[in-house]
Amino acid sequence: MELNFVSKEGARTSAFVASSTRPSSRDDATLARLGKKPVLKRNFGFMAILGFSCTVLITWEGSLIGFISGLQNGGPSGIIYGFLVVWVGTLSVFATLSELVSMAPTSGGQYHWVSMLAPPSSRKFFGYITGWLEITGWQSLVASGGYVTGTMIQGIILLTHPDYANNMQNWHGTLLFWAVVLLSFGINTAVGSLLAKFEGLFLVIHLLGFFATILPLALLSEHSDSQAVFDSFLNLGGWQTQGLAFCIGVLGNVFAFLGGDAAIHMSEEIRNAAVVVPRSLLTGLLINGTLGFGMLIATLYCMGDIDAALAENPHYPFMAIFANATGSTAGAAVMSAIVVVMAFSATTGCLASTSRVYWAFARDRGLPGWRILKKVSPRTSIPIYSVITTTVIAIILSLVNIGDATAFNGVISISTAGLFGSYLVAASLLLYRRVTGGIRVATDDDVLTNTVGSSLTWGPWRLHGALGIANNIFSCIYLVFVFFFSFWPPSLEVTPETMNYAVLVFGAVILFSMLYYVVWARKVYNGPIIEAIPFAGSPRQGI
Fold this sequence. Notes:
The structure is a single chain. This protein has helices spanning 4-10, 14-17, 26-33, 46-57, 59-65, 67-72, 75-103, 110-117, 123-160, 170-189, 194-220, 226-230, 242-249, 251-256, 273-302, 306-312, 317-326, 329-363, 370-373, 384-403, 405-435, 465-485, 502-524. It has 543 residues and is an all-alpha fold.
């Protein structure tokens, strides 16, 4: 076993010296095998983290929010078939991520996995770039959640007071954005155990709200015929082929599944994380996918005159569809409010996960100001400075919306490219290691595993043999597909209003991260730092 890195970092880290005591629990022992000290409190069990996963994923709500994207490129049928493609692809990706988090249940997630899987000559650089992709994707997702929640509140105001259209301003949405993000900040920092209880409550709202929305929609509206739903394709973006339009429109469904891996970055706050996180990821995906597909079918059957709905609310036509279907503005406002409440819940969960990524990456010295960002509040056991940083950056980004909503859309659209880019690097390296036989079965005699300079061992959850390889290959193909099309504009004729600025923002982030790496990070960042080493034979997590 290579331990040169251990001794090098151990000489500079007091935590390494303090690690000479035996871990107090299986969770601590598992974390110590990754070279990390337990710092955060484990407030989440299976049901709490399942609620967290489901209420960040919010697929049935997200499918309504991103409805317009698939309708423009693909049409009603494109939305349905695109949803199925994305659901299957996401299931494959989550199965791959579940294998990785079972091997190394750490808040660092993708960048830690890349660091442990990459060849020694490139692991430092690949891990660093993956960390920046990961942070970019998650920070953008916080901004997306705040923006969508704030502007949907504007949509409800427009629904109930149509005259508001004459006075509607971007800065109104920005102020609502700030309110959403600051309230999320309060929930994340007040009490350490509050977040787990909060997400458990909103799981109930998520499930009951589905029926409170779909039943009035399905029972009170007139229904279209099945041909209009299952055999009606549109290409309003003017693309050369219907297939290309479908591929671009599928990004609306991808948005509905973003953030489902939030539980991964809470791993150091979850009991028996190596088993519980994979189960919660896949269970949450099955629940949300089923609800999302049902809501899409109902909405498409009941949407009526879509042009009229777009004229009433061009950003969130589902609100106008609710009003036309139920014949009640008050009823439509209540149904829409459920979506808004769940979008707020998702923003709160995204803020928590993003702050843990900041904290983990700072702990390994990958960020500017890492000495401050890695600090944890002794009262709440929360990385308070990372939570503050996530909130402040989201608020700063929201200022772009005051000047130009189109430019801000470029900021939030980077979430897909950032997250899927980080997934792709990790999944590709896992495929490389598994086909070359670089991962073995774990034993109780292992001291350090699944970190820099140590051997690779499987966790308690994985797909065996050919099934695992086939799924890993399929997940990589799907990730390349989504990553490629995440930079495309919604129409062939590109104008400043239809430009997808994700490519510009993505390039700027990569350029900044590489510049910081050359100037400073390469001197202090060496991949995941070894903070603790357990005794051989320490208790191991299992199914």
